[in-house]
Write a structure and sequence with these properties.
Strand order of the largest sheet: 3-2-1-28
Radius of gyration: 19 Å
Order of helices and strands: HEEEEEEEEEEEEEEEEEEEEEEEEEEEE
Number of strands: 28
Structural class: mainly beta
Oligomer: single chain
Amino acid sequence: MSRRATGTRTLLAALAVVLAAGACTPQPQDSAQRPAAPAPSAASPLPSTARTPQGTLLTADFGADTVTFVDAERGAVASVPVGRAPYGLAVGADGRAWVATAEGVAVVDTHTRRRTALIPYRTGTGPVTDGEYRGGGMGIALSPDGARAYVGVNVPGTTGVLEVVDTAKSEVTAVVPVGRRPFDVDVSRDGAEVYVTGHDSFDVTVVEAGPLRPRRIEVAPYGTEGGLASWLKPHYAVVRPSDGRLLLPFEGERLAVVDPRTGATAVEPMTADTHQHGATGTPDGRLLVVGTGAVRPGDGKGPSLTVRSPDGAERVHPLDGPHEDVAVSPDGRTAYVTGGYTRDGYWNGITVVDLDKGSTRRLPAGARPLGIAVL
């Protein structure tokens, strides 16, 4: 049994009072305390009439009200206002980006770099604020045909919802109950199911895309002791391309492999020994997982990026400081890891990791960037 498993009772008892609203970040900042957006990098902005080049990165700037377009060599080149505290984003084949903000789902034309719509949520989420516990959209994903956007909406103090957006009409057409604080939303390769990771409810909600029937699967390889005050909860999931199973990393120690059809969960060992957040997969079956560092001093290793092969072999790339999410270049050779992070220690940029050589470089990008996509 790991250090975290054996020490959970002691840690949770100490944290229960201060983290009664949930673990992973401090309480929300008010608008007066928000960090100012950094100035753009030295790279000149692209002309407003020019189309955005392929390979440009797009980040959701949780510390500002923008998304930022980032040249993978030079850094930030342009930012577009989208709405308060953007979290996750998804980009369709038509070049439209769908951004989950505290106010609604923003639609951005990435070719012209303009917001074309802000779609309000049907669900009331309270005052529009900042911070990880704010109400509004968190995880977001598109159906394979691009006809629907699925956004996980946090409703402070209670369970969340999945809101379904008709992308042709730019309106919410359905609302489905899911778990608490839906960090991540994923879609099966055939589009038949949607998977919503409920951070504070230790679960994945499987939603059939047709009838929109929800079905809960508990995912808690460490158990659920401590409830909202526990650190050992799911964050992000990846749909494994070989068989459609869900991969959910925990603490750089355990990988929960969930069969969404039966709810059966197998647990495999991991090696990074670090609190883990963002994850993504590659078409060849590799799993990339962002490690944010030890939950408390001496209880785990520092920030890292784990690259896990389909056979379970892992290569761990150390990172300088906490990070949050990750995207991969189309050729699978470069990872882009956002420095936004949902706790203290974030920074305004991206770490670029050469997955062949293991080398890293830092790139200025946005204000506390969380979600990321490669255009």
